[in-house]
Amino acid sequence: MRDCGQCGHELEPFFDSTCEPPVAWLCQGCGSVTLEEDLRALSPSARSELATLRAFIAPVPGDGRAPREPQPALGRAQARARALLEGVRTIPVDIERIAAQYGYPVRERPLPPDERGTIARDGDHTVIVINRTRAGITDAERRWIIAEELGHAVLEHSTLVASGAPGTRLTIPEPRRRVEEREARRFAAEVLMPEEKIRGRFAELAPRIDQALGLRQRQAETDEVVTALARMFAVSPTAMRTRLQELDLIR
């Protein structure tokens, strides 16, 4: 990975094609976009999406007050998630309660088979909808869906379409969909697996990995730590492994 030369935040690669190297690097901290030096011509769709990304990932403006202490460079999603968790001490985070407190109660309704959840109008209210006809949604997946959809709501993604019909789904216009989905996932990860708490709990379990003898035992211990933390934070092992890798705690 690369670090931003302006703010030091980790850069995220942007791909024009899934079979080629990245064509640009995006900073979620300061909003800068760095193009590769020997860059081939970008496709029109890539140019359009890059322009959208550059405008969309600008940092959250401050409220004019001096911070209590120096803060790390954070993307908009992480900053909003951390603000939302102010005062929350318990783990796992009660995401459904938080969503309701912020005015987005959770409902279960039929949705198309390929959708797990969405944001919808219910009369004069906006609700988070879980697809009740989709089989096999685990508690961990349900929590992730709620967190991701709450992210769409509090980050003000898309235009909420007023409708008198209960359950009318709200659509996200292109080309912002991919950008908004990425940002909502970042929000969900920070809400369900807060960095400070993840680092603290991982530090308690890390000696098991450090003391392992050989690659096979080390991998086994890593898997057990991932599973233990996933249970602790009520997320899937896959989500926890991804989070630990993002924080450079495991490879």
UniProtKB/TrEMBL annotation:
Pfam families listed in its UniProt record: Peptidase_M78
Coiled coil: none
UniProt domain IrrE N-terminal-like: residue ranges: 122-244
Superkingdom of origin organism: Bacteria
This protein's name: ImmA/IrrE family metallo-endopeptidase
